[in-house]
Design a protein that fits this description.
Number of strands: 14
Number of domains: 2
Radius of gyration: 20 Å
Oligomer: single chain
CATH topology of the largest domain: Phosphatase 2c, domain 1
Helix content: 25-40%
Order of helices and strands: EEEEHHEEEEEHHEEHHEEEH
Largest sheet: 6 strands, antiparallel
Shape: globular
């Protein structure tokens, strides 16, 4: 398939911090990278800049847009970024680190990869969120295990604790989650952002904005306006699909969004309001159903343990 974009737009704000630990980079309007560094002054920004620029450098030197793109190529790019990051290791691998979000647009669709709690969204105006990358975070793990509710996630005291990130000097490399997206049409948006972007904005507000009649430039300015009071650094890529031309064989390409375990919307409870306001229907994901079954089995087996 041939995918063309409206001019990509970026947001890169320091927030109320003293230094900018986010990093963004792109190559040839095909590859887009966003990283959120961790480790404080002269550490977080080094990690995020090193990883983002290393991946772009590797793609420039090793990827031919006219040839098929594979996960192995992506893994080699990330391994190269790890090697460059290792140059800053000083015996304390936890001194610095960075999240990673990446989108590469190619003939087989879009490959998206992430590590940490920076996010990738696929939003279809008029429909909603088709894909939201699953955070690698303590709060999300607790939600999945049933320890806290979806509503409790937003105000959880340790919601910024990341469980997966790129750090230097470690023997066991953290891996990225990779998903392949082929259900792409005119006017779709792909939105990449660091967690600081979401301090005062939820998915509903994001969908409403991207589904509006505003131009992309106006959307960018509105996002800057509504996040100007954010404490954390906040950055984003706004990728608006201009045209998708299908080619022979495209109908054989797999679209992983509807079933991927890396898609957060596949494991969240979906609540539908009935015409009768007193009735609420909750459609639970397979994960949630499994948790309910386990809880039920524990209850009925209590007499066996007494």
């Amino acid at each position: 398939m041939k995918i063309s974009l409206q001019p990509p737009l970026s947001i890169y704000e320091i927030g109320q911090r003293d230094n900018q630990e986010d990093a963004i980079a792109q190559w040839d309007n095909r590859l887009f990278v966003l990283c959120d560094g961790m480790g404080g002054h002269e550490h977080g920004e080094v990690a995020s800049q090193t990883v983002s620029q290393s991946i772009v450098t590797w793609f420039k030197e090793h990827v031919n847009p006219e040839e098929p793109f594979t996960d192995d190529l992506l893994k080699e790019a990330i391994e190269y970024a790890y090697t460059e990051l290792d140059k800053y290791a000083n015996g304390n691998p936890r001194q610095m680190g960075t999240t990673l979000t990446l989108i590469y647009i190619h003939k087989q669709g879009i490959t998206a990869a992430h590590m940490g709690d920076s996010r990738i969204y696929h939003i279809r105006p008029g429909i909603g969120v088709l894909y939201q990358s699953r955070d690698h975070s303590l709060v999300f793990d607790l939600f999945q295990s049933g320890e806290i509710s979806y509503e409790e996630m937003k105000n959880f005291a340790q919601k910024n604790v990341v469980t997966r990130a790129m750090t230097p000097g470690e023997d066991n490399r953290m891996r990225t989650d990779i998903i392949h997206i082929t259900d792409i049409i005119h006017n779709d948006y792909f939105f990449m952002c660091s967690d600081g972007m979401l301090e005062q904005m939820d998915n509903g507000q994001l969908v409403t904005l991207l589904s509006s009649q505003l131009t992309d430039e106006e959307i960018k300015n509105e996002l800057i306006e509504v996040t100007k009071g954010n404490q954390d650094n906040h950055s984003a890529w706004i990728l608006h699909i201009k045209e998708v031309i299908k080619e022979q064989g495209d109908d054989q390409l797999d679209n992983e969004e509807p079933i991927s375990r890396y898609n957060a919307i596949n494991i969240l409870p979906h609540i539908e309001e009935n015409e009768d306001d007193d009735v609420v229907v909750v459609n639970l994901s397979k994960q949630s159903i499994f948790q309910k079954v386990i809880a039920h089995l524990k209850d009925i087996c209590k007499p066996c343990n007494n």
